[in-house]
Amino acid sequence: MSGLLQNIFKGDPNAPSAAPSSGDDADPASASTPGAAGTPQSATRGALPAAADHARPYTAWYRVWERHSRQDFVQEAFVIPFIACLLLLHVWGMGKNRRKAKKWAQAHLPILQSEFAVVGYGGVGARRAPSADNVQAEGLPAAAASADLVVPESVLKEKTGTEFATYATGRQNVAFLDVSIKLFRWYNPLYMLGDSVISMFLDSWPVPVERVQCTAYAFDGKERDLVPAPSAVEKELIEQRTKGANNSSYDGFVFAVVHKNCMRRLREDRYDISLTFTKDNPKLPEWATVMSESAEITELMLTADLIKAIEEAGEDFEYLIITDQPLDKPTKIDETTPGKRINLSLCLPKSNSYSSTLPIFTYFLRLTDRVVSTAHFRAEVVRKLRNTRDEEVRKLRRAHDEEKNEERKALVEKTKKEERDRLLRGMSAEEQRKYLEKERERETRRGMKKSVKRG
């Protein structure tokens, strides 16, 4: 643009200049010698053909191939394939995670639909799974491997590219079930590599693992508050089912069977596990241990079926926790309200065959029934459990009272300071001096009394 304006206002630099004026009005100093005048002209004439050789020929706007060459697109030749590879890798990674989550749902949908009335976020699935009797007759592996099993889109919800979730409800003693499937970032291998490398050097950085985490929330005798009853007849029916022997409440406690590789992380991350003590059990494999609040609870909950299911799951088993305490340490008294639930965490098998983990998953779904029927302990055990929880409540109440006292003291000090400032503003300079001297004397006497008491 600057060159264009220069050409408009100053003319063409290659155009011949006007001949110098001759005569009396000519300036002798401005006249150049004949030899000097010829030198720039010859140089200009010699430069014109070279400039013309390098100039691009004028072509029509659509004749791009005549104005550009392959050398002009060297940068794009590297950038475009790189972006294409990233897009293909992202599509492949997302598809791999979706297929893996769908494979898990296909393997576990029969047992879920046989235990719960509603599975997923859209009601009953496209194909109803066989009844509980048929599942027991055919076996879970055969039912899960059936080719005609259709997994509805509403069964799984894709929260992120690495996390899928499902939901189930409509079962006695279980309010609802949450399942979370966490997978690798196959669509971002650099992130996966960074996670793996950092976890090798930092103990605080968890090792990336593909796992499924399930949480079953117990009714604990609150069916009337949690189950919607459209009519009075259904409401009365719910009340009758929750009375007497059908009552779903049980004593709150914390019990866990944990893989030893997860023991330290659970004790540091979960408040409820910190209330337990760890003790190896000879009935369990060497890589598993028990974390419980009482030996009587361990003897009652550690059944032969549970031990067999854990042995079949093998290294894919991480933990099974029965708890009534929050995950994070409560900071307020309201947060100590018990929420009874059962947690199960399993690593996804690398072979994509769930025959080894299906027994422990099935036991987990039916564990609430056993807890409701047997978790009614002796008075001594209940007293011990209650004392542990009451002690935590007392600590919170003590901390709350101390915080209130500090706030009260700060308010009193603030009121005294405002009153002192108000008095000083209404005094003359001499009165202020006397008032401050008396104040210093009182502080001195108070300090002397404290030192005498200490001595």
From TrEMBL:
UniProt-listed GO biological process terms: endoplasmic reticulum calcium ion homeostasis
Bias-annotated ranges (Basic and acidic residues): 397-446
Keywords: Membrane, Transmembrane, Transmembrane helix
Transmembrane helix recorded as keyword: yes
Transmembrane segments: 73-93
Entry GO terms, CC: endoplasmic reticulum; membrane
Biased composition (Low complexity): 15-40
Principal localisation: membrane
GO molecular function: calcium ion binding
InterPro entries, per the entry: CCDC47
Membrane topology according to the record: Single-pass membrane protein
Protein's UniProt keywords contain Membrane: yes
Disordered, as annotated region: 11-51, 397-455
Domain of life according to the entry: Eukaryota
UniProt-annotated location(s): Membrane
Protein name, entry field: DUF1682 domain-containing protein
Species name: Ajellomyces capsulatus (strain H143)
